[in-house]
What we know:
The structure holds three protein chains of three kinds. Chain A is globular and about 70 Å long. By secondary structure, chain A is an all-alpha fold. Helices cover 72% and strands 2% of the residues of chain A. Helices cover 35% and strands 22% of the residues of chain B. The two termini of chain B are 39 Å apart. Chain C has an eight-stranded mixed beta sheet, sandwiched between helices. In chain C, strands 2-1-4-5 form a four-stranded antiparallel beta sheet. Chain C is globular. The B-C interface holds B 49-50, 201, 203-204, 231-237, 239-240, 258-265, 284-285, 288-289, 298-300, 302-307, 309-310, 312-316, 319-320 and C 61-62, 169-171, 199-205, 207-208, 211, 226-230, 232-233, 256, 266-267, 269-278, 281-286, 288-289.
Amino acid sequence: xxxxxxxxxxxxxxxxxxxxxxxxxxxxxxxxxxxxxxxxxxxxxxxxxxxxxxxxxxxxxxxxxxxxxxxxxxxxxxxxxxxxxxxxxxxxxxxxxxxxxxxxxxxxxxxxxxxxxxxxxxxxxxxxxxxxxxxxxxxxxxxxxxxxxxxxxxxxxxxxxxxxxxxxxxxxxxxxxxxxxxxxxxxxxxxxxxxxxxxxxxxxxxxxxxxxxxxxxxxxxxxxxxxxxxxxxxxxxxxxxxxxxxxxxxxxxxxxxxxxxxxxxxxxxxxxxxxxxxxxxxxxxxxxxxxxxxxxxxxxxxxxxxxxxxxxxxxxxxx
Amino acid sequence: xxxxxxxxxxxxxxxxxxxxxxxxxxxxxxxxxxxxxxxxxxxxxxxxxxxxxxxxxxxxxxxxxxxxxxxxxxxxxxxxxxxxxxxxxxxxxxxxxxxxxxxxxxxxxxxxxxxxxxxxxxxxxxxxxxxxxxxxxxxxxxxxxxxxxxxxxxxxxxxxxxxxxxxxxxxxxxxxxxxxxxxxxxxxxxxxxxxxxxxxxxxxxxxxxxxxxxxxxxxxxxxxxxxxxxxxxxxxxxxxxxxxxxxxxxxxxxxxxxxxxxxxxxxxxxxxxxxxxxxxxxxxxxxxxxxxxxxxxxxxxxxxxxxxxxxxxxxxxxxxxxxxxxxxxxxxxxxxxxxxxxxxxxxxxxxxxxxxxxxxxxxx
Amino acid sequence: xxxxxxxxxxxxxxxxxxxxxxxxxxxxxxxxxxxxxxxxxxxxxxxxxxxxxxxxxxxxxxxxxxxxxxxxxxxxxxxxxxxxxxxxxxxxxxxxxxxxxxxxxxxxxxxxxxxxxxxxxxxxxxxxxxxxxxxxxxxxxxxxxxxxxxxxxxxxxxxxxxxxxxxxxxxxxxxxxxxxxxxxxxxxxxxxxxxxxxxxxxxxxxxxxxxxxxxxxxxxxxxxxxxxxxxxxxxxxxxxxxxxxxxxxxxxxxxxxxxxxxxxxxxxxxxxxxxxxxxxxxxxxxxxxxxxxxxxxxxxxxxxxxxxxxxxxxxxxxxxxxxxxxxxxxxxxxxxxxxxxxxxxxx
Lengths: 319, 364, 347
């Protein structure tokens, strides 16, 4: 008897695996998407390995505590510390070759960018996942139950929509302090409204489909239909949007940092690095150029992946 | 075109057409050597179930195959020329002038943001000579009907230099539009010209599409499952309309349907398709009276007929063949009760067994 | 002649399903305050009964309300008025417990096999879900056995268990839908155009399957279709609907050989017959199929009826019975000669 049940489980898994393989095959066909996927994967792997490749302590010049409040610069900008390509004298290390130059504190820019990647990706991931879960659940409830719930959820969402994103995040951050947690929460607050709308629309259209009616006729309960059937079928555009939003989340988070909301000025984070270079665009353009370029490439990569996913997951184009 | 071609009996001939589709799962051998002849002035019904290749055949004829399809072999001879050798431009011109097609779902094939009138005008705009001639008649105050222009394809070339004003052209086009809508029996044509597709009912939209197809004065009028989505009474109206138009438009009509009853009502000859081949061609009468191919015989037994009620319908054992690895030889052999050794090895070719009655089967 | 707006008590007992004066009206709302400005009278007073083990065919064109009736009976749509009795139980007023039982005993097969199955569920998963919902079994092994049994009953096999709906043809999907409906041993099946999207040969095998199942399990069917030949083949009695009302109800041969309502007569004549020798040729009915938003006054069919009189324009005819044949028309008409030969009246 046991072997029989194992067989049923296996059969189910095999079917789903074949499905996933087909999706991957479709993605391989589009060269742009493949490029995006490769770049995105590269950065993700880099994010995991970053802290092993580069010593994180390099980000903080001698004696600098990492979570110092209130904000204070202990080191003054000094023209001597800007060194571009080539051997140079770092502030606290011996002569070395700086591939991307140094920033105002004499830190190797390349190493800083590498250290910044996990910070950014991790924060963006938390933001997007949080926003998606929250927004999607609300949207699903609004769409499926309708009536008063729908109205209520929509109106609340509208309120959040009305605020320009960054401003709301700034206000929140100003109110609740500048730890990474509060900043993440602030950006999440701004990101969830679009998902409510998206999910609600999807759920509304799935609700009309014959298989939902068939399930109702079978006697399936509302929650069962919603959780096991409607949401899994409606989730595809959300996945696409979430992937594309990944890039956007990095940008927003960096923007916050750029505006000076970072918990510490030495935090290796792409926006923070840009902020440092902002004042010296003309004499040391590389300080803002390279972090900015990195942000651009990451966003673009995820955008392409999202785009490819959308084409691939479109049920009309499949099979 | 020399006059010899114009009096030939066969207006379209498809010879040994083979078309493949490239998909994830493999090569779909959709058409496996289709042979078909369409005679001048007749109504031919192409009948078959889903997957038999009837739509693909027509798509190949008009040159609108999807990206992943390729023609592997065969010829399509229309008015002495092989359509498969034509460029995209030439095919486009043919579609505008000679080959008209009407599809199943008018809602998706009509532009929803343009009025019927605008869409009709677009078609007429492609036929400058006809419009010019009509405008000339308008100018001189002569009365004209659209039906007069059918069959006068090349006569207008001499009038290229004639001077007609824009207004006259406009009025001529409008009159042609109203006329053609009357031809398809749409009530109150002036009003319909100003309406959008969604304002019309299904049957009316279908008539509008037929009108747009006829405006081209085609030599071949193709109707791809045009009554499948319609109610019975509306279907009856459309079929009745087609019967009436048959005589007025001097075109050959190719009707594609899966419904043998529809074919019986309106066609002169019927061609039955299965698994990418034409398996039987005969006059409507003979096909029903004496079906020769085993598939046709079983198909006829599977249809419930009110006048001849049965306790059980005879279904055809087995399933429609999978086109990636189709059966060898005759594609029907796995389901055929008369299957012989040779049926698994060699594909039977269409052979004339009686006058005007062709079958592709090793039994004959 | 009897007016049959309401079934008598004794009649209700013989029939497994009784529908009495069923009305389903959809409100049309407009304006900022969503005021109800009118109603779409999809089903406007329909009564019929189906005996156990028999099949009632419901024919009509789009806008006739036949699909809405199916949904109203199963409470997938809210009925505005009327009653539905299933084996004596008042369906429309049933409580949750009764509803569970009813949902097990009344099932429906939908028209579109391509959309009525969740595209992300394998066959095994959807059969098991039906079992869980109906409380048939939770034991995985038993579920597996039962799934196999059901699949074999509808002509499929073990290899089909772990495939997704899109890997099947239309006919196979309908069989899967039928298998799912049979999970809990229902008594009554509503078949809403089950073969409209299927090929002729596939249709034949699905219809044969349905007939076999009816015999084996003594099932009662409500067969809805616009294809008259198919309905005639499957049903014992046929009801013809037009714009939300039944205009004629009789056993199948009477409907075909001896139609009494002008609409039924036209419907019979509009069917293309696969017999080129047949004498009758299509003579189409003029006009479009009307929509249930603008229902004509008096007899609903009068704008398209050759025999319409002043009375038809003003008074709505009632469904009256004569010798087991029910018709809603003011006149008795002999269609071969085209003459009215009498008036129908109560009494």
